[in-house]
Amino acid sequence: MRLISKTYWNGSWVRFREPVEGFANCEQITAYANDGAQSRGLYWTPRNSPRPRVAVVAGHPRVDFSQHYLFPQLLRAGYACLGASVRTTGNDVTCVHEQIILDIAAQVQWLKEHRGVEKVVWLGNSGGGSLGGFYQSQAQLTPAERLAFTPAGRPTALRTAMMPTFDAMVISAAHPGQGLVLNEAIDPSVVDEKNPLLTDASLDMYDPCNGFRPAPEWSRYSPEFQERYRAAQLARVARIDSQARAMIAEQRDAEFTASDPGFQSLPYARQRAVLQRAAFQPVMTVYRTMANLNYTDNSLDPGNRGYGSLLSDRPDLMNFQLLGFGRIVTPDAWLSTWSGLSSNANLLKTARSIKVPMILVHAGRDLDCYLEAHSRPIFEAFGSEDKTFENFPEQLHYFEPDEGQHENAGALAHAAKLVPWLKSRVPL
């Protein structure tokens, strides 16, 4: 049964849609964060300007942006482009945002120290928006003011990191944060995390008794059901938060016991059990995370979007498959990335302190990032005096082509608005 959407079935559209060999050079870079982690990126420069003073950097907690679809047009305009991978690219089971922004810091620092880049623009596409917002909000603080601990209570290395700030930000088809997306998409009808098929029918958005209609017919949910549903979603997130914190507390207790001066006097069997628990890294499975009311009810945040989600046009069934948001995570990654109640990567909060010029680009047919729930609140949240809103009513999440369109049409339309904005704010 094929349930994955064409975007994901055919491979991500976050890739070049025209050849660049004739006008661009590329080198692979390796950077080392101040906590010792290694990350890589692809650094693209215009062939006729091998050392540009301005670079556009794109990154994402999970997705490979090394050949972002906007890079060719930015290169033609004279900008350098860095597709910055982080330590969790391709596998975000252990994604802790307080760690991966160290990778961004290391790569931006590399640009400045090794390639003479003077100004840096962040391209925050999709989950890259909240990643860049979190980075900038920390980078602009003095080291002593930065977060000392992750949401799990682990020490961070942020206060000893070199974190150059961005000079401008592009927020494109972005949501407020992975955790906030999951707040809206987690299935509140799951009764027992260990028995994920057990369902509270009164909270099941895919139950016809609650207003659901079989795909592709649009559903309609009553205001009363919407209110109960959203409250129950947050309650489930809070329960999982508690489970994650309990797992972390058990490990900490074992670490404390192992460091106690009397540990060596304990029986060997007890020592062994304590050390095993201190070393143990549990993994959480979070089932059924494809249950946003907006997927099937287009009267909620109305626009030009089609039925379903970015991942599937049958969310009622995809909800039970492996692929989805935050399905397999460590407790630390859950709290830092996927819990909308605990994560610091919340663009609605971090944007308030950000003052650099910014442009927000909304894709009107986006299936997971919505105009009233996401784009407008993000735009309003930014503290920048110089901020621009661009709406593309007919574009999809990755500005990928619709049936019969040239595959580069969306990227060209996006760049036609973005490049003049960049040139006026961050000239070459």
Question: Key features?
Answer:
single chain, 428 residues, alpha/beta, Rossmann fold, 2 domains, 8-stranded mixed sheet, two-stranded antiparallel sheet, 12 strands, 33% helix, 15% strand, globular
Written account of the structure:
This protein is α/β, with parallel strands linked by helices. The protein folds into two domains: 14-177 and 346-425, Rossmann fold (3-Layer(aba) Sandwich); 186-329, no CATH class. It has twelve helices and twelve strands. It has helices at residues 6-9, 71-76, 97-114, 128-139, 178-185, 223-259, 268-279, 315-318, 331-338, 347-350, 371-381, 409-425; strands at 24-32, 38-46, 54-59, 80-84, 119-125, 168-172, 190-192, 195-199, 284-285, 328-329, 358-363, 387-392. The chain has an eight-stranded mixed sheet with strand order 1-2-4-3-5-6-11-12, with helices on both faces. Helix 3 (97-114) packs across helix 4, helix 5 (178-185) crosses helix 9 and helix 6 packs across helix 7 (268-279).
In a few lines, what is going on in this structure?
Helices cover 33% and strands 15% of the residues. With 428 residues, it is of the alpha/beta class. A hairpin with a 5-residue loop joins β1 (24-32) and β2.
